[in-house]
UniProtKB/TrEMBL annotation:
SUPFAM superfamilies: ATPase domain of HSP90 chaperone/DNA topoisomerase II/histidine kinase. Keywords: Kinase, Serine/threonine-protein kinase, Transferase. It holds the Pfam family HATPase_c_2. It comes from Spirilliplanes yamanashiensis. This is Histidine kinase/HSP90-like ATPase domain-containing protein. Residues 16-108 form the Histidine kinase/HSP90-like ATPase domain.
Length: 146
């Protein structure tokens, strides 16, 4: 599994995470035409910067499956309180981030974790894309070489 990690401080702009996601997807030849990975990474990072007192760590991981690429986006922080999706309220600004994550991801969740020496959490989401033609070609060539 290939991974990319980005530590960020409270107040770090989401553009930093989006750039790391773009570079990882490009390096891995993952085609995300709709920008779902960018959206999920931004939402998870913004939850940390808006709702906790310190920074966190964004981790992207790639798992190649038969004909598909699974991208796992994780965001760790030192706050042990697990986020809960809020009830839909059209009068409230914001509060829709986890609903967006749930709509875009194949699956998502939270788990307890130690981060920065504190008991905190990881919020994760898994997105799945069709393998790019170049990736399928490489896998076929590797299979024929063996």
């Amino acid at each position: 599994m290939e991974t990319v990690c980005l530590r960020f401080d409270h107040g770090t702009p989401a553009s930093v995470a989006r750039q790391a996601v773009r570079e990882a997807l490009r390096t891995w030849d993952v085609v995300d035409d709709d920008g779902d990975t960018l959206t999920v990474a931004t939402e998870l990072m913004q939850n940390v910067t808006q709702h906790t007192g310190n920074g966190g760590q964004l981790t992207l991981a790639l798992r190649r499956e038969a004909g598909r690429d699974a991208v796992i986006v994780e965001c760790a922080d030192a706050d042990p309180h697990r986020p809960e999706p809020l009830a839909r309220d059209l009068q409230r600004p914001g509060g829709r981030g986890l609903m967006i994550v749930a709509a875009l991801a194949r699956s998502w969740g939270t788990r307890a974790a130690v981060w920065a020496g504190h008991t905190g959490k990881v919020v994760w989401a898994e997105l799945v894309f069709a393998a790019s033609p170049r990736t399928r070609t490489r896998e076929t060539e590797l299979g024929q070489a063996g």
